[in-house]
């Protein structure tokens, strides 16, 4: 089985580099390896002898660029080197490799990009620490205007490796070669859209060095949770596969619950029941077949239904209404100590009231699934949670605050656990932005939790499966399609 892919922030990467250097590999060897990997990638992008311009910044990223320039020149390419700053100003390993460049250098603003068949962007990588201005900004502007292909070293300059933010301006690369591990900024938006194809070069950083970084952020992919997905045993019966209860909204707001219920059933929960307000029983009954239906009158009704111990996972929130009654439903669900998914109105009903939920879900596995708007409303008045510039960090803090897994949705959905693990999802499609899509996601999460997946694994698997299903369908997708696409994705994962 593939190991889960760890993503390292630039700060964590520095710790991993330090670990390698402690074990005896000099930093300059890492830089030589990095530069050689960039040169290899460059050769794949142009024909022999091509004109290549390398633009190098003042730090180690520039050092990698100078190594690549030196290699490519030795290999017969017509390479010119533009520096941001003076050659003498380099320090550390970059100063060592700068001495090896045998030819002239020009200032970045003097570098002629017009004849270049490839521009190698080695201005800034993991050390970017502020907004880009002045000569660096002008250089990036010219790179982007040049129209030719750009190969970025480590990160497109201007992209923050931790957050994926554009720090004022950023290079648009056709390809990015990064080292040892991808960075969150390669996956988080908008960073992802600036990188082009990202490849990871092995520069001699081992897996124990990666672990020494303390990083706990992963790419959301099957390696992270596939083993946890259960297959029914030969003699297992439906209740062993879990029983999900989905709370339905009122008579004109029942679709969301049915979408979630259908998804829970498709992902493998043995039994799924919709808990419907009395006035909505007729409309729900008219549209449910395999899914069971029970009348449920508000929080008291929910409390009564939960006397049935077999109900082991709940979905509360979609289309319930933003009301005190919804808050009371959440309280009943939390007190019942069942696996719980909270979405939509269950979250918005606590607008500015997150403190009422502080550590509220310690006693049972719980997942919240806000999009950005719901997240901002829920944590109004909590700048410690809302303000971090990294989406991963925001999700992590929310998870720790509530003692629940937080799924912060969007085109770069982040899943974070209270223990600090986090995953960034990247297999989605904009076609998932369709009414009811989030309701289906809730149902998948609950269906997996009902089958005893731990909350983090259930949420991460559900986000990936939901995205995979949407991407497989593509144009024309509506939410009703999503549950019906689950079997193929599941069969691909389980090999059956
Ligand atoms: N052992 C090593 O030396 C290794 C270095 N590596 C490379 O090292 C890079 C990180 O190197 P550094 O930490 O030196 O960082 P960078 O080279 O990314 O940038 C740091 C330099 O840029 C300046 N700077 C930061 N933001 C700026 C802004 N907005 N405007 C103008 N100047 C700005 C800083 O003052 C500093 O001089 C990685 O991206 C990678 O390319 C890797 O090759 C791995 C091994
Ligand atoms: N551009 C996109 N790329 C990938 N996934 C997306 C995109 N836009 C939306 N999604 C996904 O679609 C789902 C939408 O959920 P949500 O906003 O709750 O919608 P609704 O309330 O209509 O159900 C989320 O899982 C989100 O991550
Ligand atoms: K760069």
UniProtKB/TrEMBL annotation:
One annotated GO biological process: nicotinamide nucleotide metabolic process
GO MF entries: ADP-dependent NAD(P)H-hydrate dehydratase activity; ATP binding; metal ion binding; NAD(P)HX epimerase activity
Domain YjeF N-terminal, first and last residues per copy: 13-211
UniProt keywords, alphabetically: ATP-binding, Isomerase, Lyase, Metal-binding, Multifunctional enzyme, NAD, NADP, Nucleotide-binding, Potassium
Residues given in the record as (6S)-NADPHX binding sites: 60-64, 125-131, 154, 256, 371, 439
Cofactors (names): Mg(2+); K(+)
Entry-linked Gene3D superfamilies: 3.40.1190.20, YjeF N-terminal domain
Annotated catalysed reactions: (6R)-NADHX = (6S)-NADHX; (6R)-NADPHX = (6S)-NADPHX; (6S)-NADHX + ADP = AMP + phosphate + NADH + H(+); (6S)-NADPHX + ADP = AMP + phosphate + NADPH + H(+)
UniProt EC number: 4.2.1.136, 5.1.99.6
Keyword Magnesium: no
Record text on cofactor binding: Binds 1 potassium ion per subunit.
CDD domains reported for this sequence: YXKO-related
Domain YjeF C-terminal residues, every copy: 221-493
Family: In the C-terminal section; belongs to the NnrD/CARKD family. Belongs to the NnrD/CARKD family.
PANTHER family, per the entry: ATP-DEPENDENT (S)-NAD(P)H-HYDRATE DEHYDRATASE, ATP-DEPENDENT (S)-NAD(P)H-HYDRATE DEHYDRATASE FAMILY MEMBER
Function: Catalyzes the dehydration of the S-form of NAD(P)HX at the expense of ADP, which is converted to AMP. Together with NAD(P)HX epimerase, which catalyzes the epimerization of the S- and R-forms, the enzyme allows the repair of both epimers of NAD(P)HX, a damaged form of NAD(P)H that is a result of enzymatic or heat-dependent hydration. Bifunctional enzyme that catalyzes the epimerization of the S- and R-forms of NAD(P)HX and the dehydration of the S-form of NAD(P)HX at the expense of ADP, which is converted to AMP. This allows the repair of both epimers of NAD(P)HX, a damaged form of NAD(P)H that is a result of enzymatic or heat-dependent hydration.
Name of this protein: Bifunctional NAD(P)H-hydrate repair enzyme
Encoding gene (name): nnrE
């Amino acid at each position: 089985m593939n190991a889960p892919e760890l993503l390292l922030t630039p700060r964590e990467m520095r710790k991993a580099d330090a670990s390698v250097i402690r074990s005896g590999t000099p930093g300059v060897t890492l830089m030589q390896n990095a530069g050689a990997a960039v040169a290899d990638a460059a050769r794949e992008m142009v024909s022999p002898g091509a004109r290549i311009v390398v633009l190098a910044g003042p730090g180690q990223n520039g050092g990698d660029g100078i190594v690549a320039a030196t290699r490519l020149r030795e290999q017969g390419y017509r390479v010119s080197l533009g520096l941001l700053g003076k050659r003498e100003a380099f320090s550390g390993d970059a100063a060592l490799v700068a001495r090896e460049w045998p030819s002239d250098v020009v200032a970045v603003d003097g570098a002629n990009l017009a004849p270049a068949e490839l521009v190698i962007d080695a201005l800034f990588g993991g050390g970017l620490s502020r907004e880009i201005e002045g000569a660096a900004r002008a250089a990036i502007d010219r790179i982007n205007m040049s129209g030719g292909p750009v190969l970025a070293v480590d990160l497109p300059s201007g992209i923050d490796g931790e957050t994926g933010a554009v720090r004022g301006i950023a290079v648009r690369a056709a390809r990015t070669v990064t080292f040892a591990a991808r960075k969150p900024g390669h996956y988080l938006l908008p960073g992802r859209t600036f990188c082009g194809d990202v490849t990871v070069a092995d520069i001699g950083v081992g897996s124990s060095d990666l672990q020494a970084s303390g990083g706990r952020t992963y790419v959301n992919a099957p390696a992270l949770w596939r083993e946890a997905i259960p297959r029914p045993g030969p003699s297992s019966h439906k209740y062993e596969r879990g029983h999900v209860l989905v709370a339905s909204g009122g008579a004109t707001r029942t679709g969301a619950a049915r979408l979630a219920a259908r998804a829970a059933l498709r992902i493998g929960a043995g039994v799924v029941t919709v808990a419907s307000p009395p006035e909505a029983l007729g409309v729900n009954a008219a549209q449910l077949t395999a899914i069971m239906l029970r009348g449920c009158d508000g929080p008291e009704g929910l409390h009564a239904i939960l006397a049935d111990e077999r109900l082991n996972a709940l979905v509360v929130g979609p289309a319930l209404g933003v009301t005190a009654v919804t808050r009371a439903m959440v309280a009943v669900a939390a007190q019942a100590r069942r696996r719980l998914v909270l979405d939509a109105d269950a979250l918005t009903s606590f607008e500015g009231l997150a403190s009422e939920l502080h550590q509220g879900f310690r006693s049972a596995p719980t997942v919240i699934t806000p999009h950005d708007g719901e997240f901002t409303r829920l944590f109004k008045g909590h700048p410690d949670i809302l303000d971090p510039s990294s989406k991963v960090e925001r999700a992590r803090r929310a998870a720790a605050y509530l003692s629940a897994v937080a799924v912060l949705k969007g085109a770069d959905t982040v899943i974070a656990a209270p223990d600090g693990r986090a995953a960034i999802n990247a297999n989605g499609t904009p076609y998932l932005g369709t009414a009811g899509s989030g309701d289906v996601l809730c149902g998948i999460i609950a269906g997996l939790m009902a089958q005893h997946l731990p909350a983090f694994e259930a949420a991460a698997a559900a986000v990936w499966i939901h995205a995979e299903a949407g991407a497989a369908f593509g144009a024309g997708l509506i939410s009703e399609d999503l549950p019906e696409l689950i079997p193929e994705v599941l069969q691909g994962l389980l090999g059956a």
